[in-house]
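Exam revision sheet. Question 4 asks you to relate a sequence to its structure. Input first:
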Amino acid sequence: MAKQRAVGADVVNLIGFEATYGTPPDGSGGGVYYRVPMRQYGLSPEQPPEDDPTWNLGSPDAGDPVQGPVIVNDAMTVPMCARNLGVVLKTVFGAPDSAETGVDSGVFEHEFVSGQELLSFASQTGHPLLSTPKWNTVYGTKAGGLNFDLARTGRALAEVPLIGQGETSDVGGARDATPIQLAYLPFDNAKAAITVGGSAIGNVSAGRAQYTNSLESAENIRADGLIDGVDEGERMCTGTLDVRYSTSTALETLANAKTPAAVVITYGLASHPDFSLVITMPRVFFFKPKLPINGPGGISQSWQWRAARDPDLGYLMSVVLTNDVDSY
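Answer key, structure tokens:
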């Protein structure tokens, strides 16, 4: 039955990679766009008004506002799905190197590395169950990075900042009537593991990683108010590890020596032991934190860290997704 008001449960979001920046791909033949599971999505244009503080007009009342530029900045949050995350990682890092793990094994490794050229994409959002369906496509979109938290509970989630060029209304409905929809198989935070310098780190209660492509909008003068494009800058990754104060000296030793160590974050699936997500930063520096005592309970330190490029491996971060999808 058609609805008068939209709800998130009915929304359809499709992602299609562009061959030419700002030109959504043709999905009329089907199987071009991906339908990726979402938690939150906020990418849509806004054009906020600007003040006109002109005076001596004979009245203290404000005049007409100034028309500002079109801004298309926001983020999407997705569950770290063993299959669909590959689409998201492709927006963040570029196309992966993919290979089957064994002859006719049906299991494939997809390696995404930092420092590659980013792909732009179109993102269509539709409300097909409204009495008058509405569909809009943001085009010329690039992913600004990848942020995720480490925790003991809940689904593993990833936040991806986004910058788009503009939006168009789609009177014809969905751009792809038969999009690629990979079976949902999410990773859980409870199945995560962390190693530093090859050894497991105990007493970690929480953490956060923030990888950025340092995007910069090309805000040139145009009659339509849109940006010319999105340029990639320096790739960086920083974060924190919240650790209970104990007899362990591993992080303190690294911080005092001012030497880097490899940090590896791994997610697994009990139902699919061959599937995994492995995030590797081969050179990570740790910095000595304060030691606050806030009461009679346990004492924790929040260790800041920063990743650096490994000149031998040629990247700052590598993400390997292993699943049964042959390519992205």
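Marking note for examiners. Residues 8-47+68-171+180-323 form one domain.
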